[in-house]
Amino acid sequence: MKITMKKLLAELNKDLEWEYSAAIQYVQHASTINGAEFDSIQKELLIHATEEMQHAVMLSEQIDFLGGVPTVDVEKREISKDSVEMLRQDLRGEENAIKRYKERIGQAEALKEYGLRRVLEDILIQEEEHKRDLANALSK
């Protein structure tokens, strides 16, 4: 399907919903994860939460710049009482984000929105770092 600016803005707003949700989920997981083996990743989850909020700001600015209205809706996220499952949920969220941002980068390129593409690439790099952090924590 050919991408239009209207469709791109709708997809960016969906990405924004996921970023809000990711920040909330990371805060909740960092607050409730249990066990000495999770001490280092617990601190990292709070860093991830802050970075997800930075992504939300970056997306909001781009949506506004492109003529859209940044959403205030929040995508539903997962919760668990099991510490390992929390990390698996976070990992799935990062995998979803990576997939979405790769799609969005191609769409921005198709519309010759090179500044947006650059912002999305920067976000993608951090999402890939988050995925590595979570995968490493789960492999211990």
Describe this structure in words.
This protein has 140 residues and is mainly α. It has helices at residues 5-32, 39-65, 83-110, 114-138. The protein has a single domain, classed as Ferritin, core subunit, four-helix bundle (Ferritin, Up-down Bundle), CATH 1.20.1260. It is 77% helix and 0% strand. The N and C termini lie far apart (42 Å). The mean pLDDT is 97.
Features:
140 residues, Ferritin
The ordered string of helix (H) and strand (E) elements is: HHHH
In CATH terms, what is the architecture?
A: Up-down Bundle
Q: What is the CA–CA distance across the termini?
A: 42 Å
Give the low-confidence spans: none
Q: Structural class of the secondary elements?
A: mainly alpha
* Overall pLDDT confidence: 97
Count of strand segments: 0
Short note summarizing the structure:
By secondary structure, the chain is mostly helical. The chain is 77% helix and 0% strand.
